[in-house]
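Two quick folds needed for the group meeting slides. Do the first one here.
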Amino acid sequence: MDIKPGDTLVMKKNHPCGDNKFYVIRSGADFRLRCVGCAREFMVPRSKIESKVKQVLRTPEEP
C-alpha cells in the first residue's frame, strides 16, 4: 500500500475521541499519525495500519 506523509487515512475503527481520520506525519517501518479530531500523535507499526485502513485521502499534487 502506498501511503505518504501528508495523506489522511480513514480507518475502519474510531479513535477513542470518536473520529476515524488520521493525518500521516511520517511513514516507514512505523507510521507517525495525528488524530484529526483530538490532535494526539502516536506511532504505529506498518503491519497494523495497512490491515485497518478503509480509505486513503490524498491532497492534490502541484505540477
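Then this one, please, same format:
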Amino acid sequence: MKDVLLKITGKMVTHDEGEERHEELIEFITSGQLYNRGNSTFIKYEETELSGTEGCTTSLVISKDKVRMRRFGDPLRTDTVMEFRKGKRYTGMYETPFGPINMELLTNDVTELEDAGDGKQKLYIDYNISLRGLTESRNRLELEITHKN
C-alpha cells in the first residue's frame, strides 16, 4: 500500500425548471492510501469536516470502465455506495444528516485513471444525481492523485 496525496474537486450545479441555477464548488486535499490488484486500483481516505462527513472513510475501486465508491463509518447510520459507469443508471441509498434516502445516479462520463505527469494521476466523473425527487443536480468530480516518495 502506497501513501498518496489526494486533491478532490467537486462541482455541483442544481437545476430549476430545467435550467442551471446554482453552482457550488468544493475542493480539499487529504492523504490516503493506494494499491493495485489485478486491473483495479484501490484508494482509501478519511473524510474531513469540509466534506460534511468527518469521521467517515471513503474507498474507491477504479477499474477500466467503472468506479465504485463506498463511504462508511461514524456518523453515518448506513453505508453509502455509488457506482459510476458511463451511460448507466445506479440506484441505492444516500446517507444524509436526516437519515438515508433513495438515490439514483446517471453517469454521463467517467475516465480511466490517467497519467497527468509529474508523478500524478487524474480521474474525472460527470454524473446526475436525484435524491428521492427532493433535489436533482449535475456533479463533476475530479480526483488528482500525487504519489509520495
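Slide caption for protein two: The two ends are 12 Å apart (CA to CA).
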